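Archive record:
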Amino acid sequence: MKELLRTTDPVRLSWLLALLADAGIEGIVLDTHTSILEGSIGAIPRRLMVADEDHAAACRLLRDAGEELGA
């Protein structure tokens, strides 16, 4: 698994997952439970991950959609 990005924005995360799914790429969100435990302060970002073999295509897709990738 490789990380695409980290975000504390659940709406952005949902949109990115839908974008990946439309392209046939499975995205997995890590740190969801940790983020929920810390409450609503947004201190712990959630990580959007994809399979190693999908990483390059996912990066292109998100960049084409105007997303800046930090990882």
Summary: The chain has three helices and three strands. The helical segments are 10-22, 32-37, 55-64.
